[in-house]
Amino acid sequence: MAVLEPLAGTTFYLWNYLPSQPASIIFIILFFITTTLHLWRMFELRSWFCIPFTIGCICEIIGYATRAASYTQTSILLPYIIQSTFLIIAPAFFAASIYMTLGRVIRCVEGEPLSIIRVSRLTKTFVAGDIMSLLVQAGAGGLIANTKTAQLGNNIVVAGLCIQLALLGLFFATAVTFQRRIGKEPTSESLRTKAPWKKTLCVIYTVSALIFGRSVFRVVEFVMGRDGYPMGHEWTLYVFDAVPMLAVTIIFWVWGPVFDRPAVDDVESVVLDGGEIKSGKGRGC
């Protein structure tokens, strides 16, 4: 039977509890299913903007697989670092595809003048910030596992999460402002198109809110540190991280933007589910 052990050759415990193997396996299976679905649709419809989202799904699988393995390896450093790093960074990949989705919605209804950020810069701005957040969080993985640098690692993760929260807040404000403006001054295309762009905006709000809430939990977790309640009780990870992120993958699959296969090999010629194909680089919906 597995027992909680300190890091090999030290008296420092990486884990405050024995990670639940059954819970990890359940989420490995669930994320494997959603990953397979997203991969299938991405290749079938050439929705290349969903590559980051799919990578995020894979990160979740890797994170929970190493948690499952850690059940009998609580004294080994590598599995701890892998599961911690991959579960922390996965939502940043989800966010990247969500940022790109808003730009496509705006182009779909020809609402570029109504966006508070130029559409040509919108995706670049948010994805660049997302990459910064990702690198900051990923860089702290090894520091957290060392008793001498654990606090520094926690602080770095919190900084990365705060960048992510700031980005999500600005992104949410950008989407809401656009929807309000187009509600007051609808474009002819927004009235003519059959594309469910309003539904897609609702999906954007929902998944963004889930990622935002998860990131708030992670900030609280790392601010409270190893002696805090969240790091000492595994159920908080599953309730406030695993479940919301699984919901994001499901919602983005069921109700998210579905981009039809272009008639020509042009990844910018895309269409929202139920809409019409609009060809031309940068004008896809």
Q: What is the ordering of alpha helices and beta strands?
A: HHHHHHHHHH
End-to-end span in angstroms?
Answer: 55 Å
Query: How does the overall form come out from the CA principal axes?
Result: elongated
Taking the sheet with the most strands, its summary is:
none
Low confidence ranges: 259-271, 273-285
Radius of gyration: 20 Å
Q: What average pLDDT do the residues reach?
A: 87
| Overall SS class | mainly alpha
Strand content: under 5%
Number of helices: 10
Number of strands: 0
Specify the helix fraction band. 55-70%
Overview in brief:
The protein has helices at 21-45, 51-70, 77-108, 119-138, 141-144, 150-184, 188-192, 197-224, 229-232, 235-254.
Mind explaining what this structure looks like?
The protein is mainly alpha-helical and 285 residues long. The protein is 68% helix and 0% strand. It has 10 helices and no strands. It has helices at residues 21-45, 51-70, 77-108, 119-138, 141-144, 150-184, 188-192, 197-224, 229-232, 235-254. The model is unreliable at 259-271 and 273-285 (pLDDT under 50).
Key traits:
disordered C terminus; mainly alpha; 0% strand; 10 helices; 285 residues
How are the elements arranged and paired?
Blueprint: H1 21-45, H2 51-70, H3 77-108, H4 119-138, H5 141-144, H6 150-184, H7 188-192, H8 197-224, H9 229-232, H10 235-254
Helix pairs in contact: 1-2, 1-10, 2-3, 3-4, 3-6, 3-8, 4-6, 6-8, 8-10
